[in-house]
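cron nightly-structures :: item 1 of 1
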Amino acid sequence: MEEKKECSCHHKTKERSDKEYKDLINRLSRIEGQVRGIKKMVENDTYCTDILVQVSAVNAALNSFNKVLLANHIRTCVAEDIREGKDETIDELVKVLQKLMK
């Protein structure tokens, strides 16, 4: 008999509504398409400033994705944990915000 080994690490998970899931996946798919477009620009020897403008657009799209994800996180996970008295969630949020603001 094969014995199943479980991961000893404890990764948190998050169940998302269909609407939230679809929104995040759509945003990521658009970003993925933009990055593929930039790769093609490099392959086609596109002028540097044109590529830089597209990279800036990808950065803006990623920042927008982060804002949406962070807002959802605060409204759901953080709020729920605070209601349950899990104050360590605030420390976790502070650390994430510090990383995002580098």
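cron nightly-structures :: done
The radius of gyration is 19 Å.
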